[in-house]
């Protein structure tokens, strides 16, 4: 006699899918709004505390990251402000690395404390890091970032290699009149250096209309230049960031292009953001956040947290409105981690 096996339904967390059938594998988690640099395109007057420094604590970070990972997120990027300003960064890395199901834990940093901390972060479980370097010329670097620290940041890069970070990406915001003339220098560096150097097209935020008019440079010209000199596009992974990556047989390193104004840039959007104050942001240039903090106080709220995130996702729009000069509520990217 055939026996029938009764299958009990297993409670599944809601998958993170929006109204355009896009799946969200990648969480950008901001640890702090504070930054010690004064990048001219981001915080030209430096970080100004606005009284809200009650950033998510370790338990809250673990809970929010845990809810995303249990719903299918495979990659988390720690960002800020400057994430290395958090004294408990190493402990946060270890907490999140222990989440079952998380495949990749990565960090974006200006390089402050990298020289001293690379080994410790690596031992705690950090898989890779992105390092911002806007110029290879010490004087221009100081002019753009407000910090005369290029030598120290380069020593940090060496320390990161020594600590075993093999996949290091360098972020360079392309700036007319400030670093665009260094293109040849950057490419010669990539020829001999095993990094992925990403040129990022400047994005217009609410705080910098004049700056944008003076320094914005379309990245498309650079893309055409790369294609004409034998660079080839590399296939993209499901949890990859927004860069198009190019390879060349004569170069040890790779070149990435982040072109937020290009057609179709947002169609493959696969990422969500949580700010250092616990607000879910559906888009880098959206209109406001959805507060999650009340559901980060107890492990018992994980299901409710996932349901709130999934419900919010139904309001995610197709893309940004930067082409019409609308950056939503975003005054600068330090308030959400880029
Ligand atoms: N417009 C837009 N820009 C983004 C988005 N995600 C990242 N960026 C920008 O891309 C630049 C590099 O960001 P990173 O923090 O290094 O991370 P990433 O390139 O997304 O990450 P990986 O490719 O995973 O290494 C920053 O200037 C970000 O603001 C996005 O969703 N939309
Ligand atoms: C907001 S920062 C946060 C992490 C860290 N402080 C750093 O600078 O790497 C993340 C990235 O955003 C980039 N960024 C900031 N403002 C930008 C803008 N207006 N347009 C394009 N990229 C920007 C920075 O160059 C950096 O690579
Ligand atoms: S880009 Fe990063 S390092 Fe520069 S001011 Fe913004 S948050 Fe700070
Ligand atoms: S601008 Fe908004 S929709 Fe476009 S890729 Fe970035 S987060 Fe996604």
UniProtKB/TrEMBL annotation:
Q: Which cofactor does it need?
A: [4Fe-4S] cluster
Q: Which residues form the Radical SAM core domain?
A: 19-243
Q: How is the cofactor bound?
A: Binds 2 [4Fe-4S] clusters. Binds 1 [4Fe-4S] cluster coordinated with 3 cysteines and an exchangeable S-adenosyl-L-methionine and 1 [4Fe-4S] cluster coordinated with 3 cysteines and the GTP-derived substrate.
Task: Give the residues the record marks as binding [4Fe-4S] cluster 2.
Answer: 266, 269, 283
Summarize where [4Fe-4S] cluster 1 binds, as residue positions: 35, 39, 42
Q: Name one GO molecular function term.
A: GTP 3',8'-cyclase activity
Keywords for this protein: 4Fe-4S, GTP-binding, Iron, Iron-sulfur, Lyase, Metal-binding, Molybdenum cofactor biosynthesis, Nucleotide-binding, S-adenosyl-L-methionine
**Under which main EC class is this enzyme filed?**
lyase
Q: Give the binding site residues for GTP.
A: 28, 77, 108, 169, 271-273
Q: Where are the transmembrane segments?
A: none
> What InterPro entries does UniProt report for this protein, alphabetically?
Aldolase_TIM (IPR013785), Elp3/MiaA/NifB-like_rSAM (IPR006638), MoaA (IPR013483), MoaA-like (IPR040064), MoaA_NifB_PqqE_Fe-S-bd_CS (IPR000385), MoaA_twitch (IPR010505), MoCo_biosynth_MoaA/MoaC (IPR050105), rSAM (IPR007197)
Q: Which PANTHER family match?
A: GTP 3',8-CYCLASE, MOLYBDOPTERIN COFACTOR SYNTHESIS PROTEIN A
Protein name, UniProt field: GTP 3',8-cyclase
Q: State the encoding gene.
A: moaA
């Amino acid at each position: 006699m055939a026996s029938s096996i009764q299958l009990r339904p297993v409670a599944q967390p809601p998958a993170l899918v929006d109204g355009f059938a896009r799946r969200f594998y990648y969480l950008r988690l901001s640890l702090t709004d504070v930054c010690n640099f004064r990048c001219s395109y981001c915080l030209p007057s430096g970080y100004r505390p606005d009284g809200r420094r009650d950033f998510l604590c370790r338990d809250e970070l673990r809970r929010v990251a845990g809810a995303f990972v249990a719903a299918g997120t495979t990659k988390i990027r720690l960002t800020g402000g400057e994430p290395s300003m958090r004294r408990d960064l190493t402990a946060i890395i270890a907490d999140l690395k222990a989440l079952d199901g998380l495949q990749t834990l990565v960090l974006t940093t200006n390089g402050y404390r990298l020289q001293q901390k690379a080994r410790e972060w690596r031992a705690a479980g950090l898989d890779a890091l992105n390092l911002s370097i806007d110029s290879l010329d010490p004087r221009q670097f100081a002019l753009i970032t407000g910090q005369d620290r290029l030598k120290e940041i380069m020593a940090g890069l060496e320390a990161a290699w020594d600590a075993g970070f093999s996949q290091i990406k360098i972020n360079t915001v392309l700036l007319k009149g400030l670093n665009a003339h260094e293109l040849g220098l950057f490419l010669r560096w990539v020829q001999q250096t095993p990094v992925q150097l990403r040129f990022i097209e400047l994005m217009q935020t609410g705080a910098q209309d004049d700056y944008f008019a003076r320094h914005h440079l379309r990245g498309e010209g650079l893309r055409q230049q790369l294609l004409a000199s034998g660079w080839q596009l590399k296939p993209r992974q499901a949890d990859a960031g927004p860069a198009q990556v190019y390879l060349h047989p004569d170069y040890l390193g790779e070149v990435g292009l982040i072109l937020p104004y290009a057609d179709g840039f947002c169609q493959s959007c696969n990422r969500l953001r949580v700010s250092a104050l616990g607000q879910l942001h559906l888009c880098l240039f959206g209109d406001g956040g959805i507060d999650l903090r009340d559901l980060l106080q107890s492990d018992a709220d994980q299901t409710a947290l996932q349901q709130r995130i999934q419900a919010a996702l139904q309001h995610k729009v197709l893309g940004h409105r930067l082409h019409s000069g609308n950056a939503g509520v975003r005054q600068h990217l330090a308030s959400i981690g880029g």
